[in-house]
From TrEMBL:
<feature type="domain" description="3-dehydroquinate synthase C-terminal">
    <location>
        <begin position="190"/>
        <end position="328"/>
    </location>
</feature>
<dbReference type="InterPro" id="IPR056179">
    <property type="entry name" value="DHQS_C"/>
</dbReference>
<dbReference type="InterPro" id="IPR030960">
    <property type="entry name" value="DHQS/DOIS_N"/>
</dbReference>
<keyword id="KW-0520">NAD</keyword>
<dbReference type="Pfam" id="PF24621">
    <property type="entry name" value="DHQS_C"/>
</dbReference>
<dbReference type="Pfam" id="PF01761">
    <property type="entry name" value="DHQ_synthase"/>
</dbReference>
<protein>
    <submittedName>
        <fullName>2-epi-5-epi-valiolone synthase</fullName>
    </submittedName>
</protein>
<dbReference type="InterPro" id="IPR050071">
    <property type="entry name" value="Dehydroquinate_synthase"/>
</dbReference>
<feature type="domain" description="3-dehydroquinate synthase N-terminal">
    <location>
        <begin position="77"/>
        <end position="187"/>
    </location>
</feature>
<dbReference type="GO" id="GO:0003856">
    <property type="term" value="F:3-dehydroquinate synthase activity"/>
</dbReference>
Length: 403
């Protein structure tokens, strides 16, 4: 993994990143400036298209969106919240595409956050058994995580992202200037995903986030500009590198990017989505760091560093909804989704992250100690012998080297 350059004078490359495998490839373009949406024009020139966006984006950037279709007929403003991430919204996109007569060569454009991307991706996979789609993530979560992968999904019967597809975009446009109008809460939840990828993939990025994240949230990514661009670009690049190893999740179920995503889906649903996705991920990471400390895989100082960073960012690290029963059920659900094993990603201080594959290794006593540690940090670091005792498998990327 390439080391992150020094954060003084950084200029993220305005170039293309290919995320390729044996079946598909797509490009991710980093674009600066208020006219970033103009970069979409070559991708839709001469093509039937439908732009799917949100009321918020329309209110803040309606003029730029209108540039993609001055008549407005090909712009669908859709309520895109976690509560409205449903099959009905996907059907609305499909119905509008049908009314416009989109052909097999047509293209959908998602200009919005992660929910907009999810709904549009699923609709694109349905229409005529699959048409192209382009993503323009306007949130931090979207630019470093949700807008980059192959998946689209909707919630179903109380289960987060239960119905979905694998349908790679043709292009992804990352325009950091959209972050200038992003509310602070949404910036914070985006940083939860950045902290996630930094912990399991890049200690240098974690150090950069530790130094600059609070100021970036306070200034809406205006300053320090170079560090903000570097954090977004490096996080996206790391995510792409992890995803391209197993984009369809059919080459195994051990994925570093699942860190923070074992307990969080049930926690988010249990809150009736009052907790945002990033907030639930932050609580999940806090508990997982506490479990790693209880198992002797990280020192209390490493655990406390992450908890402190999350709290300084204004992210929660605990919730009354995070009960032993919810944790047990979450591990069971994770096993159903990950080939029969929970594959809980556990960071370590002395090498690659580990995957805990046996559900019974995380018993009620360990969960209770982990939950207590969130409120009353304590514990001692163990040694590599813990790995053999628990039967933990190593991941391929280093985690927290020294600061």
């Amino acid at each position: 993994m390439a080391a992150l350059p020094h954060d003084v004078g950084l200029t993220p490359p305005r170039s293309h990143v290919a995320a390729a495998n044996r079946r598909t490839a797509y490009e991710v373009v980093f674009q600066e400036g208020a006219s970033a949406l103009l970069a979409l024009r070559p991708w839709i020139a001469g093509q039937d298209h439908l732009v799917v966006t949100t009321p918020t984006v329309q209110a803040l950037h309606g003029g730029a969106v209108a540039g993609l279709d001055p008549t407005g007929r090909r712009i669908l403003v859709l309520d895109c919240t976690e509560a409205s991430k449903t099959l009905q919204q996907v059907e609305r996109v499909c119905r509008r595409a049908h009314e416009l007569g989109l052909s097999r060569g047509g293209v959908l454009l998602a200009v919005g956050g992660g929910v907009c991307s999810d709904i549009t991706t699923l609709a694109a996979s349905w229409l005529r058994r699959g048409i192209r789609h382009v993503r323009v993530p306007t949130t931090l979560v979207g630019q470093v995580d949700a807008g980059l992968g192959y998946k689209g999904a909707v919630n179903f019967d109380g289960h987060k992202s239960y119905l979905g597809c694998f349908h790679a975009p043709a292009h992804v446009l990352i325009a950091p200037d959209f972050l200038r109008t992003l509310p602070a809460r949404h910036q914070r939840e985006g940083f939860a995903e950045i902290v996630k990828i930094a912990i399991v993939c890049d200690p240098d990025l974690l150090n950069l986030v530790d130094r600059h994240a609070e100021e970036l949230v306070r200034t809406s990514f205006a300053a320090p500009r170079a560090a903000g661009r570097a954090i977004v670009w490096q996080s996206a690049l790391l995510m792409l590198r992890e995803l391209e190893q197993n984009p369809y999740e059919d080459q195994g179920y051990e994925r570093l990017v699942d860190f923070g995503h074992t307990f969080s889906p049930l926690l988010e649903a249990a809150s009736a989505h009052r907790l945002s996705h990033g907030e639930a991920v932050a609580i999940d990471m806090a508990l997982t760091m506490a479990l790693s400390a209880e198992l002797g895989l990280v020192a209390p100082a490493s655990r406390d560093r992450i908890l402190s960073l999350l709290r300084r960012l204004g992210l929660p690290t605990d919730s009354p909804l995070l009960t032993p029963e919810l944790c047990r059920h979450a591990l069971e659900q994770a096993a159903l989704h990950r080939g029969g094993r929970p594959n809980l990603v556990l960071p370590t201080d002395f090498g690659p992250s580990r995957f805990l594959q046996a559900a019974d290794a995380v018993g009620p006593d360990l969960i209770a100690r982990g939950l207590r540690a969130l409120a009353h940090p304590a514990g001692t670091v163990g040694s590599g012998a813990t790995l053999a005792r628990l039967g933990l498998r190593a991941a391929g990327s280093l985690t927290m080297a020294g600061s």
